[in-house]
Each structure stands twice: as C-alpha cells, then as structure tokens.
Amino acid sequence: MNEKLEILIVEDDTLLSKELALLIDNSDDLILIAVTNDSFKAIEYIKDTMPDVVILDLELHQGKGSGLNVLYNIHTLSLSKKPYILVNTDNSSVITHETARTLGADYIMSKHQEGYSSQSIIDFLRIMCPTIKHIKISSSDVSNTTKPTEQCSKRIYRRIMAELNHVGINPKSVGYTYLIDAIYLMIQQPAQGICAALADKYNKSESSIERAMQNAINRAWKIQNIKELRHHYTAKISSAKGAPTLTEFICYYANILKTEY
At what angle do helices 149-166 and 39-49 cross, to 10 degrees? Predict the structure, then answer.
C-alpha cells in the first residue's frame, strides 16, 4: 500500500504550478501525478489515476474549461474513491464558493488571503495528510477488490510517464513509448527478455527496440541540466558512459514504482 499522497494540479498560473511541482517533488510523502490547465484533461486524469488530492483552480483563463466543470464531473462520476479537493482561487464570489462546496470542494483557499503562497498550500496539505491517509487506508479494502485491472494499469502508466518527463525523455521519440512499456513490464514481472516482448508487440527487431530506448536516454542526458537530472535520477552513473545504461534505467524506475502499487 502506497502511503504517499498522490496529487493532481489543475492550475493555469504557470509560475505557481512550477513552484508547487517542485515542492511536491522535493517531498518524501507527496507524489505529483500531473499538472494541467485543461479541465477536460483533468477529468481524464482523475478517472484514470484516482489521485488522493486535487489542487484545483476555479478559473482556468489560460487553459480550457473551469474548475467548476471539474467539480461537476467528479460529482457525477461513480468513483470508488473521491479525491480530496483543495480549491485554490482568486475568485471571491460567495455564490461561486457555495456552488463549489455543493459540488464537493473540501476546502477553498483564497489567493488573496494573508500569507498565501505555494508553500502555504503544501503546509495545509501536510496538516490534512493524516486524515486523508486514514481515509485512503480505510477505503483500500473495498477499492482493492473493485478497482478494474485496466484502471490500475493506467495509474501505473501515468506515474511512469511523469518520471520520464522529469528527466526530459522526449515524448515524441520512439524510445519514449518503448521505455514506458519496458518499465511497466519490469514492475509487473521482473524478468529477462523485455526487448523480445516489445519486439513481438511492435513487430520490430529486438536491436531496434533496444537502440531506440537507449538513444532516448542518451539524448536526455546530453541536453538536460545535469543538476535537474541528478535530482530526479539518484542512481550512480559511470562517468565513462555519461548516461544510465538501458538495464540500469529500467530497473531503477521499476524498483521505485513497484513499492507504490
């Protein structure tokens, strides 16, 4: 059972999103699922990954839809576990706040209040963390027996994608998709022959599959900021190679993520 709180950020303030993401990444008890300024994508994230917490902006002027749209859809979905909704807004309308509460907002934090900052949001979640975790554990017996395998798989895939994005693996590269599948396979059943399995799946040669994945890793280590890479990828890397080998990379993330599911 994963004791870390999984968080989805739905926010159109780019600076605030980056600050929150950094604070969560540097935390030992929080995990960032995704960041989006699109209410429609947010709904898909919630259905696929079932986060523990959603930090939700009501007005997504720089994105799509609105936070109220997200709340309305969560309210109508048959979710086995409802996320804790922390509304984070500069809207001061009493009617809008009441509507948000009616639709399921658990707490509304004003961006105009004294002492407001990205850190204050995280501090608030730390206060709520024991209660949210208790509810999460209490509902686990039911969710573990009713959650579809497909839904659990999507959740793991989202986490893998988030980790690859952190180290700058290009989503447009062929190796990106192969790496996601390879890490997922290693999490499910650690074994040799992952490249062979992917070769069968994509009707490619094993060598082309392996080369595409290693090229994606090498490219990230060549163009990304080394401090950023070391922050997210903490395993030791041979100075002669300059980048993780394919096996090292896959095993590193499989070992981290398999403890969460």
Answer: 120
Question: Model pTM greater than 0.70?
Answer: no
User: pLDDT tens, position by position, for the chain (261 residues)?
Assistant: 446 788 999 999 999 999 999 999 888 889 888 899 999 999 988 887 888 999 999 999 888 889 999 999 987 877 777 899 999 999 999 999 999 999 999 999 999 999 999 999 999 999 998 888 777 655 555 444 444 466 677 778 888 988 898 899 999 899 999 999 999 999 887 777 899 999 999 999 999 999 999 999 999 999 998 888 888 898 888 777 789 999 999 999 998 887 665
